[in-house]
Amino acid sequence: MNRIFIALEVPGTVKYKLVDLRKKMLPISGLKWESLKKLHVTLKFIGPCTDNQIVSIHKKLITVLSKFSAIQCCINHVGFFPNQHKPRIFWAGLEESKILNEMVTKIDVSLSSIGFVTEKRKIHPHITLLRIRRELNAGTIHKAVHQHFEHLNFVANMVTLYKSELLPEKSVYSKIKQYNLL
Predict the structure, then answer these.
(1) Which of 91, 64, 89, 73 is CA-nearest to residue 6?
(2) What's the Rg (C-alpha) of the chain?
(3) Which of 26, 2, 7, 64 is nearest to 145 (CA)?
(4) CATH assignment at residue 79
(5) Is residue 68 within 8 Å of 181, Cβ to Cβ?
(6) pLDDT per residue of the chain (182 residues) written in tens, 0 to 9
(7) Does some domain include residue 173?
(8) Dist. CA 69–CA 99, nearest whole Å
(9) What is the extent of the structural domain holding 112?
């Protein structure tokens, strides 16, 4: 079975700016940052799927995404999951977007019609910058979250259906299908 997720693509220029930004916010050596090619906004993590389920997901995405055009996005804050006291993920967050929320909801509802679980949590669009595997100094975390940075505006015009393969030291993402938002 394949581990599947759906992601909104981030333009390359924005990815390079995020790489510069994250190093300034957490200037610590020895961190294993997410690679440039893995920077995206997850719209829905689906989990294990058969090949037949992937075909069904693809058909649903064609229908849902045909109703959307490119989306204006703004990265305007950073934070940690699950929280600053026990950080495991350092992320860059997107400004609240009615259109993006609508897209995520429509994807979720559409996939629930073919047996996938509906997401119960509130939508929190973000880009994972770092998976934290060691303790970080509380002062460093506080500084990162409260540091001012220039907001990154961009137009997202591509959604990708990905397969995620878990290896002992990392995960590898492979594109299954891409959908243009025109």
Answers:
(1) 64
(2) 17
(3) 26
(4) 3.90.1140.10
(5) yes
(6) 789 999 999 999 999 999 999 888 888 887 889 999 999 999 999 999 999 999 999 999 999 999 999 999 999 999 999 888 888 899 999 999 999 999 999 999 999 999 999 999 889 999 999 988 888 887 888 888 888 889 999 999 999 999 999 888 888 999 999 999 98
(7) no
(8) 10
(9) 2-157
Q: Which residue has the tokens 């505006």?
A: 153
pTM above 0.85, yes or no: yes
Q: What tokens does 182 get?
A: 């025109």
* Domain total of the chain: 1
Cβ pair 163, 4 in contact under 8 A: yes
Q: Is residue 168 part of a domain?
A: no
Give Cα 142 distance to the centre of its chain: 23
- Residue carrying the six token digits 């938002």: 181
What amino acid occupies position 44?
K
